[in-house]
Write a structure and sequence with these properties.
Layout lengths: L3 E5 L3 H13 L3 E5 L2 H11 L3 E5 L7 H10 L6 E5 L4 H9 L4 E4 L4 H14 L1
Parallel strand pairs: 1-2, 1-3, 3-4, 4-5
GO cellular component, one term: protein-DNA complex
Protein name: Response regulator
Keywords: DNA-binding, Phosphoprotein, Transcription, Transcription regulation, Two-component regulatory system
């Protein structure tokens, strides 16, 4: 069965690139461009993994992460952000993120992290 990835990213150009690359790797991808839509899709579609931007309209990614965890969801969450301070990493991990990737990133790194987390589920 094909793994389902929820991609929540408000940068349309980056989102299209990632959606295309993930699709080429064989993943089924659902996209949201804001936090509230991302949270609702995560709850409704039960993805195998979530790639979640930190800075999103309507609800920050770190808050989406907190809410998913508070509802008992164990889905792996890879938090994307341009924020690279140690305190930001701690905030993201304390919110329940499985991993933290700093922008700009190499898509191969994302693929490796996805493969690792999907093998654990």
């Amino acid at each position: 069965m094909t793994a389902h990835i929820l991609l929540v990213e408000d940068d349309v150009k980056l989102c299209r690139f990632m959606e295309s690359e993930l699709g080429l790797e064989g993943y089924r991808v659902t996209v949201a461009h804001d936090g509230i839509t991302g949270l609702n899709l995560a709850l409704e579609s039960q993805p195998d993994l979530v790639i979640l931007d930190w800075m999103l309209p309507s609800l920050e990614g770190v808050e989406v992460c907190r809410r998913l965890r508070s509802l008992g969801h164990k889905v792996p969450i890879v938090l994307l952000t341009a924020r690279d301070e140690l305190s930001d990493r701690v905030i993201g991990l304390e919110a329940g993120a499985t991993d933290f990737v700093v922008k700009p990133f190499n898509i191969e790194e994302i693929f490796a992290r996805i493969a690792t987390y999907l093998s654990l589920v």
